[in-house]
Write the structure tokens for this entry.
Amino acid sequence: MMNFKQKYGKTALVAGASEGIDAAYATQLAEEGMDLVLIARRTEPLKQLAELLEKTYKIDVTCISCDLSNPTATEQITKALNGKEINLLVYNAALPYIGSFMQNSFENHADMAQVNMLSPLKMVHIFGEKMLANGKGTIILMASMAGFQGSGFLSMYAATKAFNRVLAESLWYELKSKGVDVMACCAGATATPNFIGSKPEYAGFFAPKVQAPEEVVKECLKKIGSQPSFISGTGNKIASFIMQKLIPRKMTINIMGDNTRKMYRL
């Protein structure tokens, strides 16, 4: 893995950083010697992680408690940073919803759009502009296997993750020659607290293995600068190849919806 601090600069911002994939990013970037800005809604878990990382890796960690469903969240973050330069941005914060689109309220869908699309869009624009001016930096947007096709009972989540993947891939092309690396990391089922808390049932023998957050993050950080997007995990890569290349799209959408219905007893 490259030396991120040497290539991009000393400070990384991780949005949604108190547990799961976010905490894994924070830990691995701390191992690289990068100072951190950690953003999450819950204050206590954020502070506990920050204290652990500061003590273990002798780095500086800034915690910002912020609700990313607030349209002014990015402005709150930039104000709290008080001019601190961000050299590496990871956006993984996301609101999930499993169930019927029509049975969820429009207000909840709007909150998902804000957290999953509009907040990362604004942060990419603000911090990416400064990276571009400096001629170096990197942006990682977490996407999902759900976002490669229609995914019944995950409709809004899947749509927002498709947005992040396409945005990252497009910016990879625009910025690749200007010192700024952009990539979408497309994860499958990952053993985060949210995933475990959703209590999914066994998806079947042929379902890809659930990955640990650390596996996803380690693979992602190795890929930075080499490609616009990637799928983490061998099983997920195989499943994606089959569903995107070998079978009709209608069948792929049916498989995704049927699997989600089965896993969550819908």
Observations:
- The radius of gyration is 18 Å.
- The domain at 7-263 is CATH 3.40.50.720 (Rossmann fold).
- DSSP finds ten helices and seven strands in the chain.
- The beta strands are 11-15, 35-40, 61-65, 88-91, 137-144, 180-187, 229-231.
